[in-house]
Amino acid sequence: MAEEKQKNEVLVEVEGVSKKFCKDLKTSLWYGVKDLWSNVGGNKQERQLRPKEFWAVKDISFQLRRGECIGLIGHNGAGKSTLLKMLNGLINPDAGKITMRGRVGALIELGAGFNPILTGRENIYNNGAILGFTRKEIEEKIEAIIAFAEIEEFIDMPVQHYSSGMKVRLGFGVAAQMEPDILIIDEVLAVGDLGFILKCFKTIDDILPKTAVVFVSHSMPMVSRVCSQIILMERGRAQFQGTEVSKAIDLYYNRFTNNESNEVFNDGSLELEHVELINANSDKVAPDTLLQLKWGDPLALKFSFKLPASKAIPKFSVIIFDKEQRPVAVFEKNTLNSPIRITGDRLVFKLHHPNLQLSKGVYSINISASDMHSGSPKLRINNVLSFQVLHEEEIWQPFLLKTTYESV
Questions:
Q1: Which domain holds residue 191?
Q2: Domain containing 191 — which CATH number?
């Protein structure tokens, strides 16, 4: 009975929390002096913006119980880091109330909480003491922390000489092995290698039944992997909130829409007029929006070029990049025998791919053109078009290959 009561215990309670900042330092200092003089304080009359102020976080509310993990997602400037700093007690909200029950472990910035001139071992003792552990309790855990961080030979070296990956490993080792009631994790896991990240997630699985986790990341596979509820933030506000993690991720990906061309090189022999991503079931184009394709759908691209200075058909290279701008696929190049023709001073052609097996996510198209014979470059444009692949499963790998299984 006591165990069930502990499981249902609300460890994090955020009620209508807001935080505002001022865009101008001098004005911010003046407002601070006025607030102190008038004894306004944090929560009394702080819901109105004054000139040059803006809401970094506005009216955020949620509850988090032991065994639950909430994901905070959103693009840079959405207010995630500000909310985390309020949860960790580094800054106070201007309105609303935050209640944290139990020990709080936080990984909100790379190397945060470490004294750079102290050794890794000394920093473990310091962080453990801050969490409320006795020296004897820390000594019982220190070898497990050092082994988890995989920095045995560097543990007595000052932290200022650690690499970013070593700092992350040590920070996560301290935060996880000390088994806090509340664990706050920011984007720091992005620094670690894949092997360490997988070990971190196994540790999160182990401690989650006894812990409430607040998780912030730009990696949607990570978010999908651990979160039971989610908040999509934009300009400080909750644009989406609930337990439908995949729906929030799709909305997050939609914010990557960008159809503006980014011309890297052009020798003047051809100009890109228009690019279309054509739905396989119709000839309708999604104008200036992020077109969504289901996994397994055919993909058709239509390119329109103007040829002001040449009547020769170039060789085209069409490359797909993921949202982190990593090249994940390239289409076969056209040849002299490809059925592409020039009409007047225009070159229009379609590119077809029958079965799209890219995993769930947002992708962009880069195109380059070169001389068919010499290979000399003629044109290169990045991000000519973006599209989103829909699937119910969020995975790390860029491809989800269609597969059949048979008994033998």
A1: 2-13+63-254
A2: 3.40.50.300
| pLDDT tens for each residue of the chain, 408 residues long | 445 555 678 899 999 999 888 777 767 677 667 766 665 444 444 557 777 777 889 999 999 999 899 999 887 778 888 898 888 888 888 888 999 888 787 665 555 567 888 888 888 888 788 777 788 888 888 888 888 888 788 888 888 888 877 887 888 788 777 778 888 887 766 665 677 777 778 888 888 888 898 988 877 878 888 899 999 998 889 989 999 888 888 788 766 544 344 777 788 888 899 888 886 444 444 445 578 889 999 999 999 999 887 778 999 999 998 876 788 999 999 988 888 888 888 899 999 999 999 999 889 899 999 988 888 888 888 888 888 898 888 887 889 999 999 998
Note whether 121 and 205 are same-domain residues. Answer: yes
Q: Looking at the domain assignment, is residue 54 inside a domain? A: no
**Is 298 contained in some domain?**
yes
Give every strand in the sheet of 95-100, ordered side by side.
53-65, 10-22, 95-100
d(CA 313, CA 336) in angstroms, rounded, equals: 8
| Count of C-beta atoms within a 10 Å radius of residue 42 | 12
The total number of structural domains in the chain stands at 2
Residue 188 CA to residue 80 CA, distance in Å, equals 13
Distance CA 137, CA 160 (A): 26
For residues 210 and 289, membership in a common domain is answered with: no
Are 238 and 271 part of one and the same domain? no
Q: Is residue 175 part of a domain?
A: yes
In the 8-state DSSP scheme, what is residue 268?
A: S
250/266 same-domain check: no
Measured in whole angstroms, the distance separating CA 246 from the mean position of its chain's CA atoms is 14
Q: Is there a single domain that holds both residue 91 and residue 221?
A: yes
